[in-house]
Amino acid sequence: MAQYTGNALKLTTDRPIVGQAMGVTYDPSQTKLREATSLEAVVYWLRTNNEPLAQAYTFTKKATKFEAQITAPTDAVAFCIIPQTEEKKDLNNGQTYAFLLYGTDAKPLSGSYASLSYAYANYYYDMGLDDRDIDLAKSLIEKEFGLYPPNKRKFFKEYASTLSPRKEEDKKQLLSDADLLAQNSDLNEEELGTLQQVYQRFQQKEKAEAVQKVKESKFGKKEDMVATYSNFVRTKSSIADKKKEYAKVWNNFPSEPKPIDWQYMTYIHNTYLRMLADSNQWDDFKKTVAEARPKLKSQSMQVYNSSAWNLAKKDQNLEQAAELSIQATQWAKEQINQPRHASDPSSSTDAKIRKGRENQYSTFADTYGYILLKQGKAAEAVPFLKDAAITYGHYKNAEMNERYIQALEKVNPAAIKEVAENAIKKGKSTEAIHTALKQAYLKEKGNENGFEGYIAELNRIASESTRAELREKMILKPAPAFSLVNLEGKPVTLADLKGKTVVVDFWATWCGPCIMSFPGMQKAVDKFKNDPNVAFVFIDTWQTETDKRKNAADFIEKKKYTFNVLLDEKDEVVASYKVSGIPTKFVIDKTGNIRFKSIGFGGNTDALVDELSTMIALANENNQP
What is the mean pLDDT of each run of 10 residues along the chain (625 residues)? Predict the structure, then answer.
């Protein structure tokens, strides 16, 4: 793919030019937005030296289509359009509606393909995509170099991000290209930095050190914040020595810091604050935050919140926890209506930034309400927990809903029924919420008559809501074939499983979220163990152990899981499925098509089982024999 050429979205020009207004017409009839009555689109203007610039445009409905006018900023070289309503986005099968910008010579601008490549490899999350598309990114950067050969040097960093150190052919190619680049005597500081990072990434220590020496000889020795962070975290020393190390880091901090310097300074700052908290050095903790540069304020408040939460979970020093939490909570609420900050990413629209601030306040308010509950101050906790669960949380977090109901039980029991009903209907409930609702029902009715049917109807609504949400996430892509050996030494192929709905779970023994998800995955396996039309395979990948089979087998045996574990010893299957992080699960239908892709673990075991069950049912419904 180079540029979208379908019928759903059209421009008034085949070759859009910077600075010239262009019309956009969107026909939703064959998309997920076919029922939309109003529409906006976010346009991500891609630039060669900056992150994308996100701008929201309101479309006007004309008959069955929607229209708008857009103008490319002067520094843009390409752009991606994502039409959306309040509830849904049209991501065009994970590729967005992408377009190049052209020069007056009718040729794509230099950097246009490279910027698209970098967006799909690195800004996919900002654009709302589920995962990076390295194969697409690689093909785009190759088109850039075919059109503008000298740009291989200019966009070497973007090129490097499309190659994987786990692929031998990628490693060989990139190191060869890096060696060619290293032969240039006029490399600037950024180019040398990129070259050094590539050598480090591919374990070429001597070459990385040689580049470092060249960089220092040409541009002077500067603080390497990446190395500084690594040393700060790994060096074991007393808290008194850490205070000195932290002060030294600031003394050596670059006078003209780059974004990466701030990134690692933030890591160091957060790590140091957590060390102080773990050592109960609260005066130094607060003093460090008070003296920190404004750029670190947001991070400091996040550490305030997490430290307060940890104290409350342990029932320790609740007075200190409350002091930290209220400061963070008040600060977060103040941020909601503030204009954009200079530090806010240009890749986020004003609406997205506000939503992020609301979510942050919701989290902080929940922490403070939780602490007040622990202190026996339920009446004071109610408004904060209501903000967290409902006003800003919109019933989307089951644990927050539960804490709000816990406060209502002590202050306003009459309000429990409505809140619990809504939480259950949203599919964001817990056993405690069900119990609270039953008690409220008994108090209102005087007996349990009708309760079973009443709760069944609420659960039906929840199930339909969940199904509707998941149905919108369904995809249709051929599942890459695989042939692997399981822990018993038996070969297993995807072809062997054709005719079944297959759940494929990529995992590793070192992966914390994978391990946390496994109790839920075991429940799912147990639920479908007698269904001959459903199969689960757990593909162990990205392991570095010499004996990968023993490593996986020991783990599974110790945990007593009944998983069919397959060994992806060469990391080839995980690459073919374009997995960028684990755990990642795929639900493959009976005809061999991927219908769902799920990344990460939300932390709720029962929710995982319910979600997988619904995905399996939907995959079956859409593929009746």
Answer: 80 93 95 93 91 95 96 95 92 90 93 93 84 86 95 92 81 92 92 90 89 89 78 85 90 82 89 92 92 89 95 96 97 96 90 96 98 97 98 94 97 96 92 95 93 94 88 89 95 94 96 95 96 96 93 95 95 89 95 93 87 93 55
CATH of the domain at 57: 2.60.40.1930
Helix (H, G, I), strand (E, B) or coil at 514: helix
Asked if residue 462 belongs to a domain, the reply is no
Our count of domains for the chain comes to 2
Last-in-domain residue among 97, 129, 161: 129
Dist. CA 266–CA 311, nearest whole Å: 23
Is 545 a domain residue?
yes
| CB within 8 Å of 123: residues ≥ 6 apart | 44, 51, 52, 347
Q: Domain range for residue 585? A: 477-621
Closest CA to 270 of 238, 244, 292: 292
Q: Which residue type, as a one-letter code, is found at position 45?
A: W
How far CA 470 is from CA of 265, 307, 435, 610, in Å, comes to 40, 35, 27, 11
CA distance 120 to 281: 44
Which of 335, 332, 324, 326 is closest to 362 using CA atoms? 332
Q: Is residue 72 part of a domain?
A: yes
Instruction: Note whether residue 578 is domain-resident.
Output: yes
- Cα–Cα distance, 537 to 567 (Å, whole number): 10
Please, are residues 537 and 566 in contact by the beta-carbon 8 Å criterion? Answer: yes
